[in-house]
Amino acid sequence: MARHAQVHISTASRALGDDAAGVSAETVQRVRELAAMLGYRRDVGAAGLRTGSSRLIGVLVPRLTDIVLATIYESIDVAAGAAGYSTVVANTLDDATHRRSRLDAMLSRRIDGVIIGDSHLGDTAAFELQKLGVPYVLVMRKLEGHLSITTDDHRGGRLAAEHLLGLGHRRVGVIAGDLLASTGIERTEGFRRAFEAAGYPIDDRYVISSGFDTRGGLAAGTQLMKLAEPPTAIFAVNDFIALGAMGAIRDAGRKLREDVALVGYNDIDLAATLPVPLTSVRSELGEMGRLSVQALLQRMEGSSAESVLLPPVLVPRATTVG
Amino acid sequence: MARHAQVHISTASRALGDDAAGVSAETVQRVRELAAMLGYRRDVGAAGLRTGSSRLIGVLVPRLTDIVLATIYESIDVAAGAAGYSTVVANTLDDATHRRSRLDAMLSRRIDGVIIGDSHLGDTAAFELQKLGVPYVLVMRKLEGHLSITTDDHRGGRLAAEHLLGLGHRRVGVIAGDLLASTGIERTEGFRRAFEAAGYPIDDRYVISSGFDTRGGLAAGTQLMKLAEPPTAIFAVNDFIALGAMGAIRDAGRKLREDVALVGYNDIDLAATLPVPLTSVRSELGEMGRLSVQALLQRMEGSSAESVLLPPVLVPRATTVG
DNA sequence: ATCCGTGGTGCAATCGTTTGCAGAAGCGTG
DNA sequence: CACGCTTCTGCAAACGATTGCACCACGGAT
User: In the list A107, A253, B40, B112, which could disulfide-bond B2, CB 3.0-4.6 Å?
Assistant: First the structure.
């Protein structure tokens, strides 16, 4: 403890405070120099015990190996850091048991707020936090009645549909992702509605649910290619699924774009550098993370915040256009 | 505090302990039931204040958006969780300033141990922890004189070289990644040595350093393709770099494998499902994470641990063989 | 009947901070 | 010179847990 060094007692605490109110400038300097000298670090945990705030924000994600979530988490961490908070992240694998135990662990650390990135239909995390009075925000996936920062997925699906319709595609397939995640649901819904409105409703056999990773895309894509009349275009609700679908198209001996066009979602960095660059619906992942922190901070200080829908943009590339 | 509920005082602490020694079975049950009823959670922070252990392991990585690191972190988190520890992860962006501040923040939380995944030549984190007496382990990248769990990168580079030599390639390029990371250095070194030994030393103009991401691979690949006599094969020290190189090869109007063969490193999931599946040197990322936790735990309990070199394996795919 | 051992419980100190309150200077003013 | 005011500093009580030690009652042995 730096104090015992040779300075006075707990006046040091004040001297090290951000404002250092009620302490002479001279003392402040002396204390700070000594602290630096001795390599003193105030114990955030102990301080939190007294103040009641851990200055810790918990982040729940399905998996960090999903680049999309990793990107969002990165921006959350940066934004939280700028506001003086640290973050803890937990993989829940879209599984109720994991979610429970990870959330429990966070609450045991007296987390100040939670950002939920893995919201799932019928999942109770948001409700539980609401009941406990712990501030929280949903990001990426939404849930009726809870504050959320997401992209306008319905509209994103529609953009993809309009793009393909414009290129003349009439028999199309959708790889829809997890049936209980709002992202998959809304993107699919927006896409189907647009085709319906244009007079080309999509048969249910052409809409296949899947995991959100490459593996899931490969499996679902293979299924689509095995249909008696395979689609001339596929909409994958995220880029990794699209990557898997690419594999399926190749395995089926078809050529990308010429035989089967492909649209992904999120526009991750590597979409543009692939051997055949991927057409994708771009969402501002970093912005989403930043806004979610901002909303959470507002909630934490008692003021209210509004849900946000970020507008998506379609980026046409070689998997759909020459 | 659950204790005031109607039970006795701090005997509750003992009753809630893992062993519950020195408490009657009856009391234990009563306390536990009541705790569950009241939704009581022991405050890990407060407990840590007393016990001196935060049961927290810090993990330093360059970036989580690098799937390789995200995969390692996931397995670290699982292994740590199994041993009763939580983890905190921090992006350091391979930048000294970030490293300092993130490590500081961790030390302020009285971290029990650190896993360093972003070791960099001339970086001081490992030395500092050593001086402070905080247990630590390096993972993925090594540093002379410090405990580390890595793959045998030198050998991995040699495997890639032997594969290409066997296919008849004589004029090859290397995209070497960061010059200060042991991974890039050793993989490149192993590769060059093997070509040298075979009688085809690689000219320095054919070895280009880069960032570890797709963007870096694209830039370096473009540079290689602009050489008067472009290489007939490229070794990229990781898969993302290879992905970028694919883009560069395409942009140069060359065909993958036929004109330019390509070998990546790490064999991430999507390497196999790409439109043109990528030949890659496989490393056991999950195993690496697990072993690093094991080694760290050993260090934390005072016993010593040995550095590990995991053996890599080359997985041939369409970017090199028909 | 006394004594000892033992299992169960309570007391109180402690971990490193923060913070309301009181006390001690220093200084200007009436 | 005394008084009040303003600064600055120290005291001590929290925050929520853990844990060595003392204490109690009870049963069995002598």
Answer: B40
